[in-house]
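It would be a great kindness if you could assist me with a short task in structural biology. The matter concerns a single protein, recorded as an amino acid sequence and a row of backbone structure tokens. Could you please explain, in whatever detail you think fit, how the structure tokens follow from the sequence? Thank you for your consideration; the sequence and its tokens are set out here:
___
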Amino acid sequence: MLKTKLRSSLFYVLRTNTPLSSAINFPNVSNSALSPQISSFSQLPTISECSRPSPSTACEFLDNLSFSSRVFCSRSAEASDLKPGCWNCGAVAPSSVVFLVCDSCRSIQPVDQSVDYFQIFGLEKEYEIGDVNLESKYKDWQKKLHPDLVHSKSDREREYAAEQSARVIDAYRTLSKPLSRAIYILKLEGVDVDEEDTISEPELLNEIMEIREAVEDASGSRELNQIQSQMQEKLNHWSNTFAKALRNRNFNDAVSSIQRMTYYERVKEEITKKL
């Protein structure tokens, strides 16, 4: 089919009534220099002649046209592997580097939404992050990205700085707390969690009501601290339950764990306001 289309397109141009020299503009070449070559095209066979069992030389040329899809695909793959260069100096960062700031010219780069919060802090995409010092890494980024550092730069770079700095702040706050980290990692897995979704289990609802009554009736900080310690224990339990469900890719149980964590976290916030 491709060869037939090529034949049709080529022979249409060659056999048209418009002289080839006027149809095609050859820069810096005179028509007289082209006339011998153009006249030779009049000897080319027609399309019907090309379909005969013994093709002419021109038909053989068309029949032997071939394209290597492997070559095109490999070039596309190579291009897709390249990271975008610095908007200011064109330098390309190594593939292992989170390209928020150019190491060559120190220019702040535009936000790359394909970079997740775990990558910003050099972490694996895991719920349990251990004793990682997020605050130290956060401060390191702000020393490079804070808008105050580029107040004398162009409007473009100041805008990039504001966006990058805000994103690093959100990444730090999200990963610092188990609940927000759990919600975020499920989002990366394509599971959206509605934090306002209510739980219909009577047993859990009764428990939450009793806890809130206890908070309201607490006579002092000692009782409030005791309740808060109990909430933290419950949070730790459901945090471990979430981690197990995530490892098993049981997203229904993971979402259920997050809903419980949300209730206990809100009770802790209420206690903190009263202390």
In short: Residues 221-247 form the longest helix (27 residues). Residues 1-81 have pLDDT under 50 and may be disordered. The two ends are 80 Å apart (CA to CA).
